[in-house]
Amino acid sequence: MKSTKIRIKLQAYDHLILDKSAEEIVKTLKKAKAVVKGPIPLPTKIKRYTVLRSPFINIESREQFEIRIHKRMIDIIEPSDDAKNALMSLELPQGVYAEVKQL
Questions:
Q1: Global confidence as pTM
Q2: How many angstroms separate the CA atoms of 44 and 67, rounded?
């Protein structure tokens, strides 16, 4: 018999909203009596951009910006139908991207 597992990957720019939504997901799944592993923090991806301040006079003057993408992963081992329904009815805050995969 093959064991089923559901993996949820969460991404957001704000780590506080991300942690709050991950905690809400875990709490909802524990109420549905599912076996949950996580949230596991994944490495933060940092994108850096360098922009010229003035293209003509001060060509050596530059500004630097960065965007940080925070990630968390939650595994649900052998989820029941109640856990799946609770997961589908859950609403995440704006700015949190969730990817759900069945393994």
A1: 0.83
A2: 10
